[in-house]
Design brief:
alpha/beta, homodimer, Alpha-Beta Plaits, Rossmann fold, 3-stranded antiparallel β-sheet, 7-stranded mixed β-sheet
């Protein structure tokens, strides 16, 4: 499926339209494979900035390119794709918008059947945007959805070569399934994070002094760009509204149970427990690091004095011990110059690492969790 | 305020009732300061396990202890506190329940004015529970709320000594303010995470293949213990229901806007944008690492091949460069053996670190974000 890079190159030239985070990151990845990349943006300064970062040239192509990658806002995507197809600017055109069914429908309505167009969606957003936040490795190991319907085989070959050069994982899904999936795993979580964070906008100052890691995690994506998300949510309105309506029914059930705590405590507790158990079950379905179900690692917690060089010193010591670290989490607390570093390792390696670090003078929880 | 440890010890003996995560962690912290700790639990095996972990003795005290720490489930807290006060078992009794007003009210109703009782709440839960998950440093640098009302000065001195030995940060709040605060920063975010995760319980398998870091973060706390959370939510029913009702109004507004996208797109976009902007504003209020507003660090992204020892090798190299790392994030993707490590450093240090690591053979984004 992703043998493109081993064959003679099927993508030697590319036009990237829209040099924000996604477009510039695609361009940087293609430049690493010596593809000739032309950069265009409605804001010429953004295209120039991308060019200065090594993403390609702002000179327009003088002949048909092998591939055009459209990475403009979701609401402008169908129009730009249709123009490129009508002008025969590229042998194959792909878009990268976060919502697929509407784009495919609008393109078909404008230019008719479009065998040279493939709808795609890289799952690699960030809280930051613009060419300055772009990186050649943004898509490395990330899922990249491809909605193949109607595309011819040569165009699919170019799309596979694109994803291969970006290091992404192909996930083929038709457009309605894709849009329902991202509503579930991305758009509704974004709305929920924003709504929880919105409550904090009016909270008392000293209430926020009790903030813990849980709130930080739940609200992290609430820092995202509102204009981009207005575009995404309006383009996927029906699937998002459907899931939010289900979520609202659960909110109602929780509120109802909380209002009945004094009247009928046993019923209220059962109702709350049922919702929390469904949350446990859903969380347990998230894929783990290597595509399987979540793996349980043992955590080795290490207390880290917040002096310059302490984390570097820990790095040196962990490196010397030679245990493979699967994940790291640093917990911060407001107002206190100390941190707790949790090193996630294979369960069999935990006690050895804990003992070795303790022997080197680190404060490590002796039981290794 | 936290001079207790420098004075002659005011807490030489302690009875910990409830040897779960919180009680055992308190006991371990006090043992580090040579306090004599007695351990009790309705489940004798849990108390024995805590004792085996070095948290104290299961022998009951033979005379009045200086301090009793009640760390049982929220619903059992008032009863246990009242019993200890009535039996004059300790000079001072503190509880650690996540909700305060109900406990204070129930204790007052049972034993009358209680100058030897102080309601407290350490902000240090975990997704794991039980004595095996306990650690002496669980409270290090974490906020620990204290509701002082009605307590005499000698009891407050003992409480400050307790928090000092645990390394916690005292946050004084009266009980209603505390309960409103934790509803906002802990209980409602927990419900929201559970409700988003609950949607995943029924989602299509291939939808979850598109899971990104955002969903992982939003739903992390949804893995928490349902029984504990039923207790917490029912004990803080009114404040949680009030905030959830506000949140539900915003859900309704979002659903309404999404349903009107075709009819009145400009109005719908404005309504969605307003909610997302409030989310931005609330998120920006979270305290940063050292108690101030969130600090912006520069991120240096490094591509990490998932071979044994690669992270250790990175540790050694970062240690050798000698830059102070403020935070680390490892992004995982399902199905792909590679990770991206983001090292957060002071903005002035970013380009030097990126250059040094690139020189050592690491794939580093050249612009340093």
């Amino acid at each position: 499926m992703s043998r493109g890079a081993a064959d003679p190159p099927v993508v030697r030239s590319c036009l990237v339209v829209g040099t924000g985070l996604i477009g510039t990151s695609v361009a940087l990845a293609l430049r690493r494979h010596d593809v000739v990349v032309h950069l265009a943006d409605r804001d010429p300064a953004a295209a120039r900035q991308a060019a200065e970062l090594g993403a390609g040239t702002v000179d327009p192509p003088t002949e048909q390119v092998d591939l055009a990658v459209v990475a403009v806002s979701p609401s402008a995507t169908a129009e730009v794709v249709s123009g490129l197809l009508a002008g025969n600017v590229a042998a194959t055109v792909v878009d990268t918008a976060a919502v697929k069914a509407g784009v495919l429908r609008q393109v078909a309505a404008t230019v008719g059947p479009a065998p040279h167009f493939v709808g795609t969606h890289p799952m690699a957003g960030r809280e930051r945007s613009g060419p300055g936040a772009a990186r050649a490795d943004l898509f490395e190991g990330r899922p990249w959805a491809v909605s193949a319907q109607g595309a011819d085989e040569r165009s699919m070959t170019r799309v596979r070569a694109l994803l291969d050069m970006c290091g992404a994982v192909v996930v083929e899904m038709d457009a309605p399934a894709h849009d329902a999936a991202v509503a579930l795993v991305s758009h509704v979580p974004q709305v929920a994070a924003s709504l929880v964070a919105a409550r904090l906008a009016e909270g008392a100052d000293n209430a926020l002094a009790l903030t813990g890691q849980g709130l930080r995690d739940v609200t992290r994506v609430a820092a995202s760009d509102p204009d981009l998300w207005v575009d995404i949510l309006t383009a996927n309105a029906e699937p998002v509204a459907r899931i939010l309506t289900e979520l609202r029914q659960d909110v109602d059930a929780v509120v109802h149970a909380l209002r009945e705590v004094d009247e009928d405590p046993e019923w209220a507790r059962t109702a709350l427990r049922e919702v929390l158990l469904r949350g446990n079950a859903g969380r347990a379905r998230l894929p783990g690091k290597h595509g399987g179900r979540s793996t349980t690692y043992a955590l080795v917690p290490v207390v880290l004095p917040d002096r310059p060089g302490e984390l570097g010193r820990l790095f040196v010591d962990v490196g010397a011990v030679g245990v493979n670290i699967e994940d790291i989490r640093i917990e911060h607390s407001p107002g206190q110059p100390v941190g707790l570093v949790e090193l996630a390792v294979a369960p069999a390696a935990a006690s050895g690492l804990a003992t070795a670090l303790a022997g080197l003078g680190w404060v490590v929880h002796p039981e290794g969790a």
